[in-house]
Structures are given as C-alpha cells and as structure tokens.
Specification:
The structure holds 2 protein chains of 2 kinds. In chain A, 33% of the residues lie in helices and 18% in strands. By secondary structure, chain A is of the alpha+beta class. Chain A has one domain. Chain B has one domain. The relative contact order of chain B is 0.25. In chain B, helix 2 crosses helix 4. The chains are: A alpha+beta, B alpha+beta.
Chain lengths: 176, 147
C-alpha cells in the first residue's frame, strides 16, 4: 500500500496539543519513532483498493486480541458495574473507528488494554515506556484523554482525532 | 446525595469488586473508582467470600478480582492526591464511606446486601488512578477465580 502523509502545521493544532506536547513529546521521539509513527498514519491512500469494512479496520487498529475483547465488551448489559454501567454505546464504537481511520494499528504501537466505562464509553489504555498510564476514552460525542504524567483530563471533539493521537504521543508533531 | 447515612469507621475494611469489563491482563481500568457513589462491601458485616458471591449474583457478572483496604487508607491516599492538586486542595476535598445496605429484590432477582456501602463524593479519573497506584504498590489486588 502506498501511503501519503501530510505533515500538519503546528498552528493548525488546538492550543492543548501545541504547547505542552512540544515540551513533553519531542524529547522522547527518535527518528525511527517518527518514521514508524508516520508510516502508520493513513491520511490518503491511492492504491485503488476497495475500502475496508468497519470490522476489518477495527481489527487492524485494536489487534486480534483487542478486537476479541471488544466483541466481549459489546455483550455487556445495562447495570454491569454494580447496578450502574451502560452497555457499550454504538457512538463510542464510531469514535473508535474515527481514530482507526487516522492510525491503522494502535495495537502494534502499544500494549493495549481495553475497558468499558460506566457511561458506555470505550477506554483504550496503555503504559508508556516510563510506566505512565495513557488513556483515550472514546465516547459518542467526544474523546477524553487522560495523561497521568501531566495529571490532565482533556476533552476533544470527534473531529480532533489527530489531536487525540498527538496528545497521547501516538502521532509525530510537525516541527514546521 | 443529601440524605444522612451513617459513615463507616476508619478502621473498617472494605472490598471493591472488579468486574470483567474493568479488568484485563490482571490490571484494573484507571476509572475503577471514578464517579458517584462507588459501590464497596464492608467486610465486618459480610466475609470476603460471601461478598464476592453476592456482588457476582446481583450484578449478573463475573468478578475476576477485588481490592481490599481500610477506610483510613482510602482517606489518606486521597489526601496525598489532593495535596498535589490545586483545585481539589482549594475545595478541601476529602472522601468518606457511607453505609448503603440493600434489600432482597425478588423482581430483579437480587440478594440482600447488608454490607453494601458507597464512597462519597464523586471521584475524578485522576484520583481513581492514584488510588489504583497506591493499592498496586501494596499488592492489594486479590484474584477471585472468575476468568
């Protein structure tokens, strides 16, 4: 597959992604990290192949283990969390798919764990090389990103999937 | 919640059952304690084994693991977190545990749980993760046999 990656101008990013990440992420990225991350980001594909179906895209994004876990979580019923807890919301899956359209494989980048959140969201969780927990919560109307190092919970619109990847160190930051 | 419910004493041991939705690779979700009225069971009222059976039955769910800790530990760990968080510190945030026994409900096929209690007030995601870190450092995770 031929991949085209368009670097973003930092001025195109939301303020949250711009300021702290320039400080927090640049120092950790090696050249090979940047190349690997850039290769995993599909902005446009011109190989003429048929578009992939949602299940295939999610399986690539979450890995086989993660996809199996997702199917299990889809079976959870109302009240799964000590009488509270909503089932996995269809909109949360769409938000996850939206991320998968920006990053072909999260599972190949991190040791992914997947949990259901009480409000029917999907928590994508991993520990970075420094042992700090990173989390993206996919919800029907937004993303929540938890950064343990900075002690921050930040919300992003569904249209800001790339900023979510930046905020969790999954996408290279353009130096332009 | 504004109703007056008795508060559990600091020395009381409480159990937080972890559902399969919140547990993968022997690791609980960072949001295990996040939210309002987080359910726990009081071990001075009901044993660990019985608590797991009742929670499993009432939630119609597997409970692969649980955490056991005292109310005082919960309060102290919270204070550690609050001391580093400007907003919570300014608000004088603290936590407590209220007794919240539940009765048998035949319609919902639920067993009585006289040991049920709830952590108050609402816990943030950051505090929830801090509590899990504290519990992990002390190896407080206990597996319950559910896969």
């Amino acid at each position: 597959m031929q991949i085209t990656y368009f670097p973003m101008q930092s001025s195109m990013l939301p303020a949250f992604a711009r300021v702290p990440l320039q400080q927090a992420e640049i120092r950790r990225l090696s050249v090979s990290d940047i190349i690997r991350a850039a290769e995993s980001i599909v902005v446009s594909s011109n190989d003429g192949a048929q578009p992939l179906d949602s299940a295939t895209i999610l399986r690539q994004f979450l890995g086989q283990k993660g996809y199996s876990r997702l199917l299990t979580l889809k079976e959870s019923k109302q009240g799964w969390n000590h009488g509270k807890g909503e089932p996995l919301h269809e909109g949360s899956l769409k938000a996850c798919l939206n991320l998968a359209n920006k990053l072909t494989s999260l599972a190949s980048r991190v040791k992914l764990r997947i949990y259901l959140s009480e409000n029917g969201g999907l928590n994508l969780v991993w520990d970075n090389a420094m042992g700090e927990t990173k989390m993206i919560r996919c919800m029907p109307n937004q993303y929540l990103v938890f950064n343990e190092e900075l002690g921050l919970e930040k919300h992003f619109a569904l249209t800001d999937a790339y900023a979510v990847l930046l905020a969790t160190g999954l996408a290279p930051l353009s130096l332009a | 919640m504004t109703c007056q419910r008795p508060r559990c004493e600091g020395s009381e041991e409480i159990l937080r059952g972890i559902t399969s939705e919140q547990f993968e690779d022997n690791t609980p979700s960072p949001d295990l304690f996040e939210g309002d009225e987080v359910s726990v069971n009081r071990l001075k009222i009901m044993s660990r084994e019985k608590s797991i059976i009742v929670i499993r039955h009432n939630t119609v769910n597997s409970i692969p693991a649980c955490y056991i800790f005292t109310v005082t530990e919960l309060v102290n760990w919270t204070q550690e977190y609050v001391s580093k968080n400007t907003d919570l510190k300014r608000r004088g945030f603290t936590v407590w545990v209220e007794e919240a026994p539940t009765e048998k409900n035949e319609e919902l096929n639920q067993l009585a749980n006289p040991a049920h209690a709830e952590i108050e007030p609402k816990i943030t995601l950051g505090l929830s993760k801090h509590l899990i870190n504290c519990l992990s450092k002390l190896s407080k995770l206990s597996l319950c046999g559910d896969g």
